[in-house]
Automatic annotation (TrEMBL):
Source organism: Parapusillimonas granuli
Domain Carboxymuconolactone decarboxylase-like, chain residue ranges per copy: 25-107
Any Pfam family the entry gives: CMD
UniProt protein name: Carboxymuconolactone decarboxylase family protein
GO MF, one annotated term: peroxiredoxin activity
Highest taxon above the source species: Bacteria
Length: 125
């Protein structure tokens, strides 16, 4: 069981980014806009794109990425089955180290799902 609170990880990173937003506002604004454009519905919906981003976060061993994308997936109504299958692909592509971070991603998703109102959760099939 991980002792990392991904809620705290995302809050801390958000706080730590404040000086960059102040000193290089155009860079940070552009990064934010690029993220919005990349995740926007198109041939793939936003949830599918967030699942891909979570898998990449696992493969690159980025705790912040895992936190932010797990949070987005909880908000977008991803099911545990969808997240777990995505993590299975990440483990397949990244081996043992990805398996360790996939376990962390499960914990992050569960942490953010616990904050999601139960009346908006989709039914798992």
């Amino acid at each position: 069981m991980t002792t990392t609170s991904y809620k705290n990880v995302t809050k801390q990173i958000t706080s730590n980014l404040a000086p960059l937003r102040a000193s290089v506002p155009q860079v940070m604004k552009s990064f934010t806009e690029m993220g919005k454009a990349a995740i926007a519905d198109g041939a793939l919906d936003a949830k599918t794109k967030e699942l891909i981003a979570l898998a990449i976060g696992v493969a690159t061993r980025c705790d912040g990425c895992i936190g932010f994308h797990a949070k987005a997936l909880a908000r977008l109504g991803a099911t545990k089955a969808e997240v777990h299958e995505t993590l299975g692909v990440a483990v397949y592509m990244g081996g043992g180290p990805s398996a360790m971070y996939a376990a962390n991603a499960v914990a992050a998703f569960d942490e953010f799902m616990a904050e999601t109102p139960s009346n908006s959760l989709p039914v798992e099939r």
